[in-house]
Every structure is written in C-alpha cells, then in structure tokens.
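lol forgot to send this yesterday, sorry. struct tokens for the thing we talked abt
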C-alpha cells in the first residue's frame, strides 16, 4: 500500500509540474469572483464596478448615526455623537465621525475612503477603452457609464472639498512604485474641476432611464449636483470678505475659498445652474397644488415612503436583504415603545421652527400655543415629528395592555406631591427598552413605512439624494443674494403652497427674507443631509451649536396610579409643557470646525499636504 501511495503522489506531482509548464496555476481565475481583467471584457461587469461608486459616495443614509445628529436637527438616543459635538476631533482622530458603533453614515466621508473611490473612478477612465462593444446597446451602455463616472468623480470631489477645502486633484492611477505626494489644489481649482466633470457627465448621460435603472445618474442629476456645488461655492464660507473668522492668519487661504471677492458672479452662476434644471421641465413638486380636501401631511408621508415620483431627481436604494442592521431604516428611528431604537429624535429648536398652519410663527410666549403646542401646526410638522398623544401604528402585542390606544407616550405622570408614578412607554422612564428611549420628547416620522412592523421587517424605500424642491430652494437663495427678492419669493411660495401655507408677506425683504428662506429650507429638507452643510456654508454654526433643548410633559394623577392614561383613554390632567435643556447635550463650536482636519496619518504619507487652520 505504501508503494502504491508513493506512485500516486509522484504522478500527482508530475501532473502539477506539467500543468504549471503550460500555464501558471497561480493565474487562474478565482472562483466566485471576477478578476480585474474579466471586468474590462464585459460591459455588464463594468456596470457592477460603477455601481459600487454610488454606495461609496452616498454611504448608508438610514444608519443609526446620521448627519442630522452632527448638527441642530436631532439627538441620538445612544449619545453616539457626544465627543464630536463637544469639539474633540483632532488630526489624530475624528471621534464618532469614524469610530464606534453606528458610524456607517459618516465613516465614508473622510479622506482615505473618498480617495479610494477616486482611484476606482480613475481606473475606469484608464481602462474603459478596452471594453468591447459588440452591439448598439453596448455602445449606449458604455457611453452612459462614462457619464455616471464623470458624475461620481464630481460627487467624490464635492464631498472632499466640502469637508476639507481644496484637495489634491488626482486623475491618474498610481502604481505601487509611484510618488504619492501631491500638493492641495486651490479651492477654486477644485470647483472648476468638479464643474468640468459635471459638464462632461451631462453630455454622456440620458435625461431619463428605464425603471430598472432608477438610482443611476441622469443628465438631470448631474445638473442638480452642479446646482448644489455652485450654491455652496458662492456661499459666505468661501468668500474672502466673509470668512475672516475661519481663514484669518492662515497662510494658505486659497485652500479654503476664493481669493477674489466676486461673490455676485458666483451667485449668478448658482442661479443659472438651478434655473437650468427648472427649465428642463422634467420635474415637478409632488402634489404641488393640493385641493381643499387633501390631507397635506399624508401627501408628504406618502411621498417619502414611495418612489418613482416626478419630484425625484436621484434616488438611493438601500439593500433590504442585507444582514447589516444599519439597513433597517424604520427600526432606527421609531420609538422604543415599539421595540425600536429611537435615534434621530428631533430637537426642540427644530420643532419650534415649524410655523402654525396660518403661516404665523410658533411662540412659547403665546398662551394658546404654550397650552397646546402640537395643535394647528403646519402639515410638514405632522409628516415629520412624532409627539405626545399622537395616534400611531398598533403597539406590539406585549405592550397592548400598557397602551391599548396606540397613542405615543412621551411624557410622565406625577402625584400631587411631585413623585413620579408612571413614565410613558416611549421614554427612558417607561416600562421597556429604556436605553432606546429618546431624550427630547419627540421621535422622527419622516421616511418611515408604518405598514411594516419595524422590529422584524426591513423597509426598502429609497433615500432622496436629489429632489426638485431643493432645486427651487437653491434658485430662490441665489436670487435673494442677488437682491432679486420678488423672484425669490415666487419660488419659495411654490414650496409653501405645496405645504398648505400662505405666501410670504409681500413686504418681506433683505435679511428678513433671508431668514425666512433659511427656515423654509430647514423645514423642507430636514433629515435629508442638507442642514449639516448649510450651517457651515452660511457661517452660522456658532449660533446653532449650543445647549440643545427638549420638551418635558407632565400629568398629575392620584397617588397609586399605575397607568399612563385613564381607562377610557383620556388624560389624568391637563398636561403642562416645559422646554428644558437636553440631558448631556451641550454642543461646543470652534471656527476651525468649519473644515475637518487632515489626519496625521495622511500627512505622514504625503509631506506636501498643508493642514487646515487650527489643527
């Protein structure tokens, strides 16, 4: 047997040697994946390669940590942005931006992963000429993919510039032996490059796509990104006469913004870019002319839980089949009283910016408003904010006895002597899941499909990366900055009319109009990754990074009370509403935070990089 075994082994080794002489067995195609060369032999594989660029750039918009937690929109129930909002990021680490549980939405928004995506985009352009086109359909696909990568490369650099200011513009594919050192280009050079990429994208991309290609860029999406890029570029953060608080004493101000103070020309470019999207006549506001019998709040709810609407310019589809909990959009934000995680709870500052349904401002000094702060608010409030007493979806069976009325419980019941008797099921003093309870007295309603049981079912609704309402607001902002108040109000009023609100006052102008516009933008685009950038480009972060506030809701009941509401569902008493400081949420701002630091690890790899001021 031993002799037979030796013969078999010798024959096996000989066969390996013979095979190796014919072909290096280390170069065989890997099973279960495609080699790099295979990708460039098939337009369909190239499309898969391009698809990954979108996910790299957009990240996970439904993760448990969102950009809203890093600005004045929301507070996470898990305090997952505590150190960041205390200003503890440095060139040695970005705190919760990249670290810890739930950084899926922001970790991709840093130097290294964004430049990894730039490398993918550059590889595409270095090899796309190799891809065979054996039919007109292949030729059409290759042209479209070129447009998509121009779009994605513009988007990647837009994110880099928004985070860091001017960055190195890299368009070649570096090999292992290449010199990786490269100086930062000026902010203006970067903007010009991004706009050039988008102009190329517009040439290659079609104006519309088949249903199965939704989520891919069109020429309209490229024009929408161009509108956003030029709006940001025209803003005060990048104007030498406005950004002194950021750039003063910095030896390279050209990295942070323009050096020539021609802000008017830049606002005109932003206006022109937005108007070009409007003039396409491809998009419109959903339910832009609501009828007197319309439930306008429901119109908004329906829009954000569907897709394929004429307001959509570019959607991002998540992957509901993934195991990663971060894809569970609804479970992230719904209340703990539904066995959900209670993240992105609206701050009182946001809630107070929603007007009354007659278009007047909400005011805590108004006794009627104070006694019933959730009544007669504008429709977008009801489509976005979950509040005390709101009728919601059916409770899980195990909590039906605690809340047989399916009405949110974000308050507390006290005895006449001031002792806590019952904490609402949706608070941190309730009977269940207290660690997932919100801190602010509110929960997020936007983009949540209430037909699903979120603790078990994953929703697959898309995230709106670009929609027509933003374009109208971009256009209005540029008009305001150019002194064209009447034109600006025309477009702001389109947004307000759709929301069931009266037009802005005809006498509103100047700074008052600007403030009205900014509030309109805040409310319309809340939780859509706009506010984080807006407070920076407007240079107002020092005004909004402060102690945040919440609502304290109290009822008084007899001693011995063990239920949140009476047996018939009525309240034990008239509730009292008090605005209080949000626990553990004093936010600190330093003007250096307008730009991220370049991490020391990157500077060590590239000694030509100049660090941003203050780090």
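and heres what i got for the seq, position by position
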């Amino acid at each position: 047997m031993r002799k037979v075994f030796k013969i078999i082994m010798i024959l096996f080794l000989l066969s390996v040697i013979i095979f190796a002489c014919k072909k290096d067995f280390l170069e065989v195609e890997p099973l279960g994946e495609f080699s790099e060369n295979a990708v460039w032999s098939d337009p369909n594989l190239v499309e898969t390669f391009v698809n990954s660029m979108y996910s790299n750039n957009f990240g996970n918009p439904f993760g448990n940590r969102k950009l809203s937690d890093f600005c004045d929109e929301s507070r996470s129930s898990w305090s997952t942005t505590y150190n960041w909002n205390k200003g503890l990021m440095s060139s040695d680490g970005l705190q919760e931006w990249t670290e810890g549980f739930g950084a899926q939405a922001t970790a991709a928004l840093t130097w290294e992963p964004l430049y990894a995506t730039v490398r993918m985009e550059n590889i595409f352009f270095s090899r796309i000429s190799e891809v065979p086109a054996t039919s007109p359909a292949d030729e059409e696909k290759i042209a479209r993919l070129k447009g998509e990568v121009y779009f994605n490369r513009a988007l990647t650099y837009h994110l880099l510039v928004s985070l860091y200011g001017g960055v190195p513009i890299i368009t070649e594919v570096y090999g292992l032996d290449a010199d990786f050192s490269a100086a930062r280009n000026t902010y203006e050079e970067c903007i010009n490059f991004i706009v050039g990429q988008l102009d190329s994208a517009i040439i290659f991309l079609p104006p519309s796509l088949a249903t199965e290609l939704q989520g891919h860029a069109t020429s309209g999406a490229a024009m929408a990104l161009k509108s956003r890029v030029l709006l940001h570029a025209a803003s005060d953060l990048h104007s030498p006469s406005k950004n002194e608080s950021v750039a003063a004493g910095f030896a390279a101000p050209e990295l942070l913004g323009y050096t020539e103070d021609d802000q008017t020309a830049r606002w005109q470019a932003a206006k022109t870019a937005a108007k070009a999207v409007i003039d396409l006549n491809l998009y419109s506001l959903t339910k832009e002319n609501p009828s007197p019998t319309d439930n306008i709040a429901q119109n908004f709810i329906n829009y954000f839980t569907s897709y394929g609407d004429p307001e959509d310019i570019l959607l991002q589809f998540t992957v509901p089949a993934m195991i990663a909990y971060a894809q569970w959009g609804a479970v992230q934000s719904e209340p703990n009283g539904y066995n959900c995680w209670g993240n992105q709870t609206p701050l009182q500052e946001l809630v107070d910016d929603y007007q009354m349904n007659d278009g007047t401002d909400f005011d805590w000094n108004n006794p009627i408003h104070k006694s019933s702060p959730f009544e007669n608010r504008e429709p977008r409030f009801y489509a976005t904010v979950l509040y005390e007493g709101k009728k919601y979806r059916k409770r899980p069976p195990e909590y039906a006895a605690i809340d047989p009325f399916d009405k949110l419980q974000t308050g507390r019941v006290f005895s006449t002597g001031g002792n806590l008797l019952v904490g609402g099921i949706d608070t941190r003093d309730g009977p269940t899941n207290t660690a997932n309870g919100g801190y602010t007295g509110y929960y997020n309603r936007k983009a949540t499909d209430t037909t699903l049981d979120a603790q078990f079912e994953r929703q697959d609704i898309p995230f709106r990366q670009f929609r027509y309402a933003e374009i109208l607001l971009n256009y209005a902002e540029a008009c305001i900055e150019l002194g064209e108040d009447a034109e600006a109000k025309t477009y702001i009023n389109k947004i307000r009319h759709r929301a069931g609100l009266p037009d802005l006052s005809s006498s509103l102008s100047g700074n008052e109009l600007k403030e009205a516009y900014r509030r309109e933008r805040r409310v319309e685009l809340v939780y859509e990754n706009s506010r984080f950038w807006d407070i920076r480009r407007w240079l107002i972060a020092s005004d909004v990074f402060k102690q945040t506030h919440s609502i304290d809701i109290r009822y008084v009941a007899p001693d011995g009370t063990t239920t949140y509401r009476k047996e018939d569902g009525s309240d034990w008493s008239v509730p009292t509403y008090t605005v209080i400081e949000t626990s553990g949420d004093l936010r600190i701002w330093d003007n250096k935070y307008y730009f991220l630091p370049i991490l020391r690890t990157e500077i060590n790899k590239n000694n030509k990089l100049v660090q941003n001021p203050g780090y």
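Confidence is low (pLDDT under 50) at residues 1-33, 320-327. anyway ping me if u want another try
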